[in-house]
Amino acid sequence: GPTEVSNMDSFGDGGHRSPPIDNVQWAQGMAGEDRFQVAVSEERGWVFVGIYDGFFGPDATDYLFANLHVVVHHALKGVLSDNIQCNEPTTNSGNLFSLNGGNHSPEFERKPAKRGRTEHPEKNNSAMSGGSPTMHQRVLGALAWALRETEEAFFKAAEEGAADNPEIGLMGSCVLVMLMKGENVYVMNVGNSRAVLARRPEPNLDNILGKATEKDLQQLKAEIMDGLQSVQLNAEHSTSVEEEVKRIKAEHIDRNAIIHGRVKGKLNITRAFGAGYLKEEKCTYSEQHAISLAFKD
């Protein structure tokens, strides 16, 4: 059945404790309204990184910090087991997968979350490809489901506490999540936070093996560092992206959907976790763009 989220931690957890998951190593931090967390599971062989860039207050980022990884952990049970290495072939277009099963493209599945329960990803993920989902699609679907489920629980908690904390409806956060399993990296985001991969070519060691001097090694190191190339792994969701502006205007007949480069004159990001006051009536909820990258030439 659906994940039980009624026992999720409420927002405002000043202790910023790690979620209660066994055999996981944690690193975490905060700065103002922003939070980050890194979780390493040697037992399951994966690394989770969450970066939450908050606005209008810390409650949304506190809630993400306390709950998102727990829901992701649940969603991935049976998808990323100890014996699954995700070694399926990748596409030829930069070795990138999008959530809708295509290769690297700004187009991705747009399914606004609805208030109430969402189905578990394993029950609904075959629709992404029109047939049996691949391992990568199952992982990406689980990540997207986890974020939607966490946001629904956040909205519910915000509504229940609105009398004491009415400004909670203003608060929200950009979300950037990275999951690494074996040689695969999966990225999910809403907002304008960027995931950037630094790549470098394999050095040519044919002429220096067995006879390299200290000077040769220093020169090789310099050449390797100079050859680093950055690759942005995710799409940004902001009013500086023409496709996002067109989407907002098409989905919202209101002429004032974009004012002075900001959604409703408030935010320059076009997708976010929380910010419930901008998601009432016909407004869409959080959407995700997720990709996986296999470290294969």
From TrEMBL:
Alphabetical keyword list: Hydrolase, Protein phosphatase
Catalytic activity as recorded in UniProt: O-phospho-L-threonyl-[protein] + H2O = L-threonyl-[protein] + phosphate; O-phospho-L-seryl-[protein] + H2O = L-seryl-[protein] + phosphate
Location of the region described as Disordered in the Swiss-Prot/TrEMBL record: 1-21, 95-133
EC number(s) on file: 3.1.3.16
One example GO MF annotation: protein serine/threonine phosphatase activity
Top EC class of this enzyme: hydrolase
Superkingdom of the source species: Eukaryota
InterPro entries membership: PP2C, PPM-type-like_dom_sf, PPM-type_phosphatase-like_dom
Domain PPM-type phosphatase residues, every copy: 13-297
Compositional bias per record (Basic and acidic residues), positions renumbered to this chain: 106-123
Transmembrane segments: none
Bias type Polar residues, positions: 124-133
PANTHER family registered for this protein in UniProt: PROTEIN PHOSPHATASE 2C (PTHR13832), PROTEIN PHOSPHATASE 2C 31-RELATED (PTHR13832:SF349)
Name by which UniProt lists this protein: protein-serine/threonine phosphatase
